[in-house]
Amino acid sequence: MAKQSKLKILTNGFIKENPVLVLLLGTCPTLATSTSLINGIGMGLSTTAVLIASNIVISLLRKVIPDKVRIPCYIVVIAGFVTVVQFLLQGYAPELYKSLGLFIPLIVVNCIILGRAEAFANKNTVIDSALDGIGMGLGFTLTLSVMGAIRELLGMGTLAGFQVLGSWFTPIGFFLLAPGGFFVFGMMIVLVNIITKGKALKGKSFGCAACPMYNSCSGETPRMIEPAQNTLEQKGAEA
User: Fold this and answer.
1) How far is CA 157 from CA 12, 169, 215, in A?
2) Same domain, 156 and 116
3) Has residue 225 got a pLDDT over 60?
4) DSSP secondary structure letters along 1-15
5) Same structural domain for residues 186 and 233?
6) Domain membership of residue 227 as a residue range
7) Mean per-residue pLDDT for 172-195?
């Protein structure tokens, strides 16, 4: 693996390798918990805390964990930290805990966390793994927060529970439903594509194929998305 600067490791998760908007990982909790700004921040920071802690521990144990049982070991480590986060939320933020519901324990099998454990923490130093966890976690939190703010503002006219839009505004309930979540999600992907001029998505695998554990799950090699121009040229050459 090519050596990366500390700053690059930290900032990769914001745009270039954003786990949600570029790699399309963690789509289920993203759509389900981004109905409000508070929910988005809460879910994002909970996942970030688990991601940082699990990255550090897995990096420390990377030379001890047998290769054949590494995935179960990852899950045990992650589950331990998820339990801690779950108890903290239940004790100090009960309303947020009730709102997020089942998606807190489901952090255990979040493909973003498992993917970073396999792709990065298992191959890098503790400091680099911690920075990777911070960057990827904050990228995830930022995405959920922006989505939550947009959906809450348009769906209820509020932001973080405070009334922002006046009586003139008619809430659009569509944005609080699953179709509205998909719509906002799609628009944010389009925005990232415009900002990066298509570079963020170019040559990337998406969804399950973007997860470093894809081979372990499917036994197949991930297929990358090739630029349309190259595909046309190849077809022309074959003809």
Assistant:
1) 33, 7, 44
2) yes
3) no
4) -----HHHHHHTTTT
5) no
6) 207-238
7) 93
- Taking the C-alpha atoms of residue 232 and residue 135, their distance in angstroms, rounded to an integer, is 36
Residues 66 and 113 in one domain: yes
Show the DSSP H helices in the chain as ranges. Answer: 6-11, 27-33, 37-60, 70-92, 94-100, 111-116, 126-156, 178-195, 214-218, 228-238
202 found inside a domain: no
Number of structural domains found in the chain: 2
pLDDT digits (tens, 9 = 90+) for 10-58: 999 998 889 999 988 999 999 999 999 999 999 999 999 999 999 999 9
Q: Is residue 1 part of a domain?
A: no
Total-model pTM: 0.83
Task: Please identify which residue in the block is written with the tokens 């997020």.
Answer: 100
Percentage of the chain beyond pLDDT 90 is: 68
AA identity, residue 85: V
Q: 179 in a domain, yes or no? A: yes
Q: Are residues 86 and 50 in the same domain?
A: yes
Q: Residue 159 — φ and ψ, nearest 5°? A: -140, 120
Is residue 200 in a domain? no
What percent of the chain is predicted at pLDDT more than 70? 82
| Residue 193, helix vs strand vs coil | helix
Output the CA–CA distances (angstroms, integers) from residue 132 to 59, 178, 184, 187, in the order listed: 11, 30, 27, 26
Q: In this structure, are 103 and 187 located in the same domain?
A: yes
Give exposure, 194-225, as e/b (b: 16+ Cβ within 10 Å). eeeeeebbeebbbeebbbbbbeeeeeeebeee
